[in-house]
Amino acid sequence: MTVPETAMIKAAGLGMRMRPITETMPKALIPVGGKPIIDHAIDRLAAVGVKRIVVNIHYKSDMLAEHLARRRDVEIVLSPEEELLDSGGGIVQVLPSLGESFYVINADVFWLSGKRPALLRLAQAFDPDTMDGLLLMQRTVTAVGLNGPGDFMIDQTGLLRWREETEIAPHYFAAIQILHRRFFAGATPGKFPLRPYWTRAIEAGRLYGIVHDGEWYHLETPRGLSEVERRLATRRVER
Length: 239
Known about the structure:
Layout: E1 6-10, E2 31-32, E3 35-36, H1 37-47, E4 52-57, H2 61-68, E5 75-80, H3 86-92, E6 101-106, E7 109-112, H4 118-125, E8 133-139, E9 152-154, E10 160-162, E11 171-180, H5 195-203, E12 207-211, E13 215-218, H6 222-232
Parallel strand pairs: 1-4, 1-6, 4-5, 8-12
Antiparallel strand pairs: 2-3, 6-11, 7-13, 8-11, 9-10
């Protein structure tokens, strides 16, 4: 097993649905379980051996930069975006800093691992020779903060495909993944989403997933945040 030594945390979003909380702070700094949500992701990445974490910033970027400057346990590289570059463009902008394979995590998710850290399970399952991407999936029946028909279908080998319009998928993408730099082969800098590149990897038979065996929370609205805090009040939060 080779654990990626680099990661990207996507923290540039405006957090519109989290207002009024995000009127005074970026979404990544909202406290969850006693500390800013982005610190939970950084702690988990550092704990498995990640050495460098790139964080894209845009909304209230000075606040986030000031907070991240206090970290001393891992190298933090900031990637300012004057214009939001969407889910794909933001990663391509920093590919030279990310190495060959790397974690990508959205800053608005919080998770508790099962028997083994989820990031280690991803690293153990990732095969750079046969995979361009490996996504962590969460069962729709246990995901907190999301409602809908799910995202991907997974076969017995872990291969992913998009659900058909009439299908209900049993899993959501948990906003945590490992990507190989070839995933973005041919991409040019600019604003674009990840979805077409996921589709390309699916068509090539090189996009896989594993199912998270712990708890997972998506922070989208103040009401959802309150629900998460109520649930965490009765659970042990990873430090």
